[in-house]
Write a structure and sequence with these properties.
By secondary structure, the chain is mainly beta. It has one domain: Porin (Beta Barrel). It has four helices and 14 strands.
């Protein structure tokens, strides 16, 4: 029965991914709404509820657009349920590292394919861990979206981590503030991680974990962007999993048409330890071992990378991440590749 359950889950995930990929490809030439409006902040609720002519407002700023009618209409829904990704912030790119918890502040409808090649330090068993996953996001309204940020399959040559399924996490994100003229955003969210992963892959422990977070972004220096997010990972069983506070920052700059250089920094602080796991060693973003002796520990990582954004509906990126602190736990270094198909 468990095998049937896993195959059903991956079939559903791949089916949704295929549908979103096909739909988003067809929409790749949709309108590129510029960050020029006559009023600020932009009232996204009235944009769709009252059918304000956003395209005319944008064009008053001297820009030219195509397919304005479909982009500004609230009736063109994906599967009849989900709205277009939030207009007016199309020059932003999504963060890459801390991928489960570092959330983009925009309201998005997208599928994000992720591959991670993670090197484990020799002191923690050495070897490599790979993750293949597909994240899903869907805009229910112009401000509220569903976020399914964790799933996928883990393969490992590490002595402590075996192959298996990752836990599954899903929740809601709400856009608190959107000012398209100044290119500023702020959102808040909550998600819950279900302990349904494979135990031999060091998943599925405890009774689940809540994630509460704030995430925001702004344009800097005309062609650059800063995105910052901070949140708390709070397990329901504090003996089985550790409590973690993180702060992640992303900086990018568009150096050529559609080409971005980026750097990111992640800080992880363990507020509370579990009662088991691997004494003195914790798992970072993908794992929560619930280890003893980790309360008060800190790890800081840095990443550098590049992204290519062919259109507002597609992003392809690669980033290399490494610790800045002497403490490394399970991270020697990591290579992350993502490919986003957006509606």
């Amino acid at each position: 029965m468990k095998l049937i359950y896993h195959w059903r889950r991956i079939a559903i995930t791949l089916g949704l991914f295929t549908c979103c990929t096909t739909w988003c490809a067809a929409k790749s030439e949709a309108v590129d709404i510029a960050p020029l409006y006559d009023t600020a902040p932009l009232d996204m609720a009235s944009l769709f509820d009252n059918q304000i002519d956003l395209c005319s407002s944008c064009c008053d700023g001297g820009e030219e657009y195509t397919d304005c009618e479909s982009a500004c209409s609230g009736s063109d829904l994906l599967f009849g349920l989900f709205q277009h990704s939030q207009p007016g912030f199309d020059k932003f790119i999504s963060p890459m590292t801390n991928p489960v918890f570092f959330e983009d502040p925009r309201t998005l409808t997208e599928a994000r394919a992720i591959f991670i090649q993670h090197r484990v330090p020799t002191a923690a068993g050495g070897g490599n861990v790979q993750l293949m996953a597909v994240q899903m996001r869907a805009a229910i309204t112009d401000r509220l979206s569903i976020v399914a940020a964790k799933d996928g399959f883990v393969t490992s040559s590490n002595a402590l981590i075996d192959d298996g399924w990752a836990d599954v996490a899903a929740g809601l994100k709400y856009n608190l503030y959107a000012n398209a003229r100044d290119q500023q955003l702020l959102s808040a969210g909550i998600s819950y991680e279900l302990p349904v992963g494979t135990r031999r892959a060091l998943q599925g422990n405890g009774d689940g974990e809540f994630h509460l977070y704030l995430t925001g972004g702004t344009e800097i220096l005309d062609y650059g962007h800063w995105i910052s997010a901070s949140g708390f990972r709070l397990p329901t069983d504090r003996n089985a999993e550790s409590s973690i506070w993180y702060w992640s920052n992303h900086f990018d700059y568009e150096v050529a048409n559609g080409w971005y250089l980026l750097t990111e920094m992640n800080w992880y602080h363990w507020m509370g330890a579990g009662a088991g796991g691997i004494a003195g060693v914790e798992g970072g973003d993908l794992f929560n071992f619930g280890s003893t002796g980790v309360a008060g520990n800190d790890i800081v990582t840095n990443a550098v990378g590049v992204k290519y954004k062919r259109s507002k509906n597609s992003e392809l990126g690669i980033a290399f991440e490494y610790p800045l602190t002497d403490r490394r736990d399970v991270m020697e270094n990591r290579l992350t590749v993502d490919w986003i198909f957006r509606y």
